[in-house]
Structure formats: C-alpha cells, structure tokens
C-alpha cells in the first residue's frame, strides 16, 4: 500500500510540473556579444520551443521569428528540446 502511495505522489508531482509548462529562468552573469546580460532558461518536461518563445519573446515580435532566433542563437537545427537543456534567449 505504501509503495502505491509513493508512486502516486511521484506521479502527481511530475504531472503538476509538466502540466503547468513551468520554465525556470535564470539571469546569466556572463555577457553576450552585445554587452547586455543573457537570459537563460532550463527546459522542464513538457516544454516546447514554441511555448518558450511565446512566454519570453519581446513585445510585438512574431513568435515564428523568435523561435528561429532561439534556434540560431543556440546552434539548434531543429525545434527538438528536452528536459534539462539550457537555452540562451536572444533579445
């Protein structure tokens, strides 16, 4: 019975984290080429590059353009990302 409860609790935590699409953002202490601080995010389970772009793109910027900028900035050739990846977000 206790094994079931532990399994349920772990499943509940995983579903809570992935269901909300939470992205943890960190301000980097290093500077990029333009001299401004870079924003870094750590991908969590369930995140997509599109959702990250929607949440972090500059106001008025097209999401498709920002997705391509994220890919280019991080040397990605596809939109495939996985939990634990760290992405640097362009301005």
From TrEMBL:
The family database entries (PROSITE patterns) matched by this protein are listed as: LYSM (PS51782)
InterPro entries attached to this UniProt entry: LysM (IPR018392), LysM_dom_sf (IPR036779)
* SUPFAM superfamilies registered for this protein in UniProt: LysM domain
CDD domains linked to this entry? LysM
All copies of the LysM domain together span 39-89
What's the protein here called? LysM peptidoglycan-binding domain-containing protein
